[in-house]
Amino acid sequence: MIPAPYRVAERERDTEDTWTLVLEPVSSPEPAIRPGQFMMVYAFGVGEAPISVSGPPDRPGPVVLTIRDVGAVTHAICAAEPGALLGLRGPFGNNWPVDEAAGGDVVVVAGGIGLAPLRPVVLRALERREDYGSVCVLYGARTPGDLLYPAEVESWRSRAHVEVTVDRPDQGWAGRVGVVPKLIASAPFDPERTTAFVCGPEIMMHFAAEALVARGVAPERIELSLERHMDCGIGLCGHCQLGPTLICRDGPVYTQAELGRWLAVEAL
Amino acid sequence: MSVVSEQADRVLGVSALDDLLEALRRRGYRVLGPQARDGAIVYDDLDSAADLPAGWRDVQAPGSYRLERREDEARFGYAVGPHSWKRFLFPPRVRLWRATGVDAIEEEPHDERPLALVGVRPCELHAIAIQDRVFMGGAHIDADYSARRAGLFVVAVNCHDPSSACFCTSVGTGPAADAGYDLLLDELLDGEHRFLVRAGSAAGGEVLDELDTRAATGDDRDEAAAALAEAAQRIRRALEPDARDVLLRNLEHPRWDEVAERCLTCGNCTLVCPTCFCSGVEDTTDLADGAERWRVWDSCFSLAYSHVAGAGPSRPTSRSRYRQWLTHKLATWPDQFDVQGCVGCGRCISWCPVGIDITEEVSAIKQTEAAP
Predict the structure, then answer these.
(1) What angle do CA B112, B114, B115 make, to 5 degrees?
(2) To the nearest whole number, what is the mean pLDDT of chain B?
(3) Span B290-312, pLDDT tens digits
(4) Which among B105, B140, B283 is the nearest to A236, CB-wise?
(5) pLDDT tens profile B184-199
(6) CATH fold of A4-92, please?
(7) pLDDT tens digits for B137-149?
(8) Of B298, B308, B335, the CB nearest to A228
(9) Are the beta carbons of A237 and B251 separated by less than 8 Å?
(10) Stronger pLDDT, A194 or B311, i.e. the higher one
(11) Residue A159 DSSP code
(12) For residue B289, what pLDDT band results from cuts at 50, 70 and 90?
């Protein structure tokens, strides 16, 4: 439960309420983080929050975190200027099975801040582009101003099928309008050989999984990343349980086949 | 744990209890045990055997607990009180570390003095074994718990006086202890007031050898066996044997709405439960440059327990929180920790301010479930 000190090397504002920090360990080795894992991030004296890693996976390097300012702890983390110290524990949790998806198609379905933990999946699939068939990125946010990494998402278009939608357009928006699960029906992938990676609000994941199943993607190949209150990150505090599982210990990534039954029960 | 032969049974006079406590203290243990205080049997430091709750019984029912005088001077003539031993192995508030900066965090030193628990009930032995699995059975071991757990000495006392809230016989945890103790006592009250004592470990055997005892006779053993048989007979409350399946089949049963009307979501049940292990962390600062992290008991009945910043609570209703407590305790716990979650001690029944009885809730769901 002792955080290791990390120094903020870079800080960039992504949206009105979301920031990306690049953190370098002060004295510990740079961690290699699997895609989909999270860190427990401590702001001195304020508290700790679980934050998914959004940087490139599987090689030692600085830790890249994208954080939405939604509470006291995340507010303090987002406010950490270059040079400031934050405490990190981790990486914790299991990973997106990106390597296991090789040889088939990949569909990434992200809602809002849910793109952050999926960015390592996209980076890995594009880095080893020849290992995959079709790569689709379907991304939705509330408004155009809430879209994460807009320039980078545009840059993915040369190697992937990228579709972006917003719930509420503004005057300058010429793109799609509507919720992201609606993009699934017409996206160019072969359901028989597709692995889907889904992250966003629970209700969005529910509808996304439904749409993927309707297209013929097997529930065993629909991967979801869950979020729950976490105080320890290591399976001891009990907060993150959902039915038979502790999300920090057994997850956060599960298949629809594993968790669909439990996710369908409201307020479980 | 080695099997102890009948020949190892000894008999200890009630006046020699102080010798037992002294033998433990001499070995460096902090000796903890039951005492009657504020109208309840509580667990605290024992200065001498005179602190034990001589002549008290507890009378329990849903939403009710009180002490009454017994006809005799039995030292362990009650079932269980509101305390469980988890308050010493997993204390309600523990400071984990202090810091003057993110790069200057100092872990709290662990209390080195080993604990000796005197008067541990068979159901409580199981509760300790369950928390061992939770805190020390996985990839990440709770350092504070394992430090307190290391070197524990357990003096168990078989349960001859179960309360009406008890249901250990239906979950296989009592009224007789099977394992997990260093010494096991049966309190014998017919004739001379004495204890039948068996060692369950080498450490227990060493302590027993130091005490002034005599060999047990057939009469001593018969009296203990009769008391245990009578205790088992008196336990009428029972958990449905298929509670797990019943609950998992009925996550949307109307009974959840009905119990939510009664449940105050106060969390008493989780605090008195000897296996409930949820904790939160409190990060605090002083007005200078110091910060601390504390681990504190938490309860799935609080709204904050499931709160996610930006998304709100995962379990916003009483119904969802009561369902979480009951299904976790009786159904999903084995999935998470490969061990049952409930030991049948009945505390959650007696200490529920509105007298909700978990065994009754399961039975009500079972009796009214829709045909599959």
Answers:
(1) 135
(2) 96
(3) 999 999 999 999 999 999 998 89
(4) B140
(5) 999 999 999 999 999 9
(6) Elongation Factor Tu (Ef-tu); domain 3 (2.40.30)
(7) 999 999 999 999 9
(8) B308
(9) no
(10) A194
(11) T
(12) confident
CA distance B124 to B158: 11
CB-based contact B316 A227, cutoff 8 Å: no
Contacts of B95 (CB under 8 A, 6+ apart): B108, B292, B293, B294
| Per-residue pLDDT, B286 | 87
Domains A4-92 and A99-225 share a fold: no
Determine the distance in angstroms separating the CA of B150 from the nearest CA of chain A, rounded to an integer. Answer: 18
Helix (H, G, I), strand (E, B), or coil: what is residue B222?
helix
CA-based radius of gyration for chain A? 18
- Spatial distance between the Cα atoms of B290 and A197, rounded to a whole number of angstroms: 42
Structure confidence at residue B154 (pLDDT): 98
Residues 285-304 of B with CB under 8 A from A: 285, 291, 293, 295, 298, 300
CA distance B12 to A265: 56
ipTM of the complex: 0.94
CA nearest A74 in B: which residue? B309
Residue of A nearest to B104 (CA): A5
Q: How far is it, in rounded angstroms, from Cα B244 to Cα B332?
A: 8
Residue from B163, B197, B194, B193 nearest B181 by CA: B197
Q: Tell me the residues of chain B between 209 and 248 that have a Cβ less than 8 Å away from chain A.
A: none
Q: Find chain B residues with C-beta within 8 A of A28's C-beta.
A: none
**How confident is the model over B344-363, as pLDDT tens digits?**
999 999 999 999 999 999 99
Residues of chain A that touch chain B, judged by Cβ-Cβ distance less than 8 Å: 1-3, 5, 26-27, 42, 44-49, 68, 70-74, 85-87, 201, 227-229, 231-232, 234-239, 241, 243-246, 249, 265-268
Q: CA of A262: which chain B residue's CA is closest? A: B251
Q: Is the dihedral of CA A80, A84, A89, A95 positive or negative?
A: positive
Q: Structural domain boundaries of chain A?
A: 4-92, 99-225
Inter-axis angle of helices B255-262 and B318-327, nearest 10:
110
Instruction: Calculate how close chain A gets to B275, using CA atoms only, in Å.
Output: 12
Q: Which CATH architecture has domain A99-225?
A: 3-Layer(aba) Sandwich (3.40)
Name the phi and psi angles at B87, rounded to 5. Answer: -70, -15
**Nearest CA to A97 among A50, A132, A66, A49?**
A132
> Cα angle at B191 between B187 and B197, to 5 degrees?
30
Grade residue B1 by pLDDT with cuts at 50, 70 and 90. Answer: very low
Per-residue pLDDT of A174-184, as tens digits, reads: 999 999 999 99
DSSP labels, A176-208:
EES-GGGGTTTSS--GGGEEEEEES-HHHHHHH
Task: Measure the CA–CA gap between B136 and B130, rounded to whole angstroms.
Answer: 10
Q: Which chain B residue lies closest to A28 (C-alpha atoms)?
A: B103
- The average pLDDT across A207-231 equals 97
Question: 3-class SS at B213?
Answer: strand
**Helix H or strand E segment including A18:** strand A18-25
Lowest mean pLDDT among A81-90, A147-156, B104-113, B204-213: B104-113
Chain A residues lying within 8 Å of B287, measured CB to CB = none
